TrEMBL record:
Pfam family, one: SBP_bac_1
InterPro entries noted in UniProt: Bact_solute-bd_prot1 (IPR050490), SBP (IPR006059)
Annotated signal peptide: 1-26
Domain of life: Bacteria
Keywords: Signal, Transport
Record Gene3D superfamilies: Periplasmic binding protein-like II
Family: Belongs to the bacterial solute-binding protein 1 family.
Name used for this protein in its record: Sugar ABC transporter substrate-binding protein
Length: 447
């Protein structure tokens, strides 16, 4: 499949830099493990994370760059969505990975509370202070101690679409949420379902909710709900669920209807829009949609696959929701030196440039040259996220205890899947969400 890259000259410079330790694409020399050389030869670093498919292959290029620089061999272990459960079992079994790429703030906090994590080195801390907006250090810290380095971020307020599908229906990218639903109905009337919804993966449904809620309720309420300072039975939650029900209850708008949506995972939702047999005109998710559309289906980002910002709901402002994967070092890992050296490497713009070249990736590191991104569309999403600074709101479910916001078949993921199956009673769904949240937060606070 075609892979979107930045210019050949810059790509060649990056390859040479990784091999020889010289300058990559205008940045500083690639350094790790105390300044270069094969000083970790003979070590094997085990890294665990949720990624699979194209994301795993692209991250492997980052691991390969670390190996080329330091001599350390690497092994990636895919955890699936249940990171907390898988990592906990490995620790108990005496087979802990050295580094975990944690996709939820709540899981990072849980790991820290269980004394599983090693504080990051002074070198990592200085890199974060110099290259990241303060919000990213805040999300990576627990009680003032830095445990997590956010290597991969995402702009989760993007709706991706096929320009051909919208052109054939005679509609333009909408400016409001209400216009988006109206445009979807017009697309459906033209013979193509409007939205491909990945209901099999409950986390995508939390993202739908969060964008609607942030726009309708505003950032202050969003922060309070994220901290569970207001209950999920609050009228603002019921209102957001009611707004979502207008989409979820209209089978014309959903590829395969609600039943089809519940049987579609995230990669499958992208395939329905950008695959060889299009089955929908639009798919909502983060900027990482582009990586799959380009890598798996040969789409040219910005031309036959592009996006519009998630539109504002009613009189609210357009939402900007982000997510991210933080690298943490486990105390029980067998290769502490290699693990910390790897995080020191991940904190450099050059490490981020490796994945940025492949697409489906945004770095929160301000030091990464925007020219490293392989196309103007991703460059724009990266620029908007970095320039948003501390005004970005982190994915709400990722801030919750894993039992509520990050576990397959349980908590918010399961309840919103049930809501997609039957969206007729938003108030009852809100009550179920509050019961699950209260239990999860109570358990988390008890240790």
């Amino acid at each position: 499949m075609m892979r979107r890259r930045f210019t050949t000259a810059c790509c060649s410079a990056l390859t040479l830099a990784l091999a020889l330790g010289t300058t990559a694409c205008g940045g500083d020399p690639v350094t790790a493990a105390g300044g270069g050389g094969k000083d970790l030869a003979g070590k094997t670093l085990t890294v665990a994370g949720v990624w699979s498919g194209a994301e795993q292959r692209n991250f492997q290029k980052v691991l390969d760059a670390f190996t080329e620089k330091t001599g350390a061999q690497t092994r990636f272990v895919s955890t699936g969505d249940n990171v907390s459960t898988v990592v906990g079992s490995k620790i108990e079994g005496g087979n802990a990975p050295d580094v975990v790429m944690v996709p939820q703030v709540g899981v990072l906090q849980q790991f820290a509370a269980r004394k599983w994590l090693r504080p990051l080195s002074e070198k990592v801390g200085k890199s974060v202070d110099a290259g990241y907006a303060p919000v990213w250090k805040e999300y990576g810290s627990v009680d003032g101690t830095l445990y997590g380095l956010y290597f991969k971020a995402s702009n989760k307020s993007t709706v991706w679409y096929s320009p051909e599908a919208l052109d054939q229906a005679g509609v333009k990218p909408p400016r409001t949420y209400e216009e988006m639903l109206a445009a979807g109905r017009t697309v459906a009337d033209s013979g193509l379902p409007a939205f491909s919804v990945a209901g099999e993966d409950g986390w995508t449904l939390t993202d739908w909710f969060e964008n609607v809620y942030l726009s309708q309720a505003g950032p202050e309420k969003y922060d309070r709900l994220a901290r569970h300072e207001i209950p999920w039975t609050d009228p603002s939650v019921v209102r957001a669920l009611t707004t979502l029900s207008a989409l979820f209850s209209d089978d014309r708008l959903l590829a395969g209807g609600r039943k089809g949506a519940l049987a579609t995972d995230f990669p499958g939702s992208v395939e329905k829009v950008f695959g060889p047999k299009p089955g929908a005109g639009m798919v909502y998710e983060g900027d990482f949609v582009a990586g799959i559309a380009a890598t798996e289906f040969g789409r040219k980002i910005g031309e036959d696959a592009t996006f519009f910002p998630f539109p504002p709901v009613g009189t609210g402002a357009a939402p900007v929701v982000s997510g991210g994967d933080a690298a943490v070092v486990l105390k029980d890992g067998r290769n502490q030196e290699a693990a910390m050296a790897f995080l020191e490497f991940l904190a450099t713009p050059q490490a981020a440039a490796v994945w940025a070249a492949e697409g489906g990736f945004i770095s929160p590191n301000k030091g990464l040259d925007l020219g490293a991104y392989g196309d103007t569309t991703l460059r724009a999403t990266a620029k908007s996220l970095v320039e948003a600074g501390d005004s970005v709101r982190f994915d709400m479910s990722d801030q919750a205890p894993a039992a509520f916001g990050g576990t397959k078949g349980a908590g918010e993921w399961k309840i919103l899947q049930d809501f997609l199956r039957d969206p007729s009673d938003p108030a009852a769904t809100a009550a179920r969400l509050e019961a699950a949240a209260a239990k999860a937060y109570r358990t988390a606070n008890q240790g």
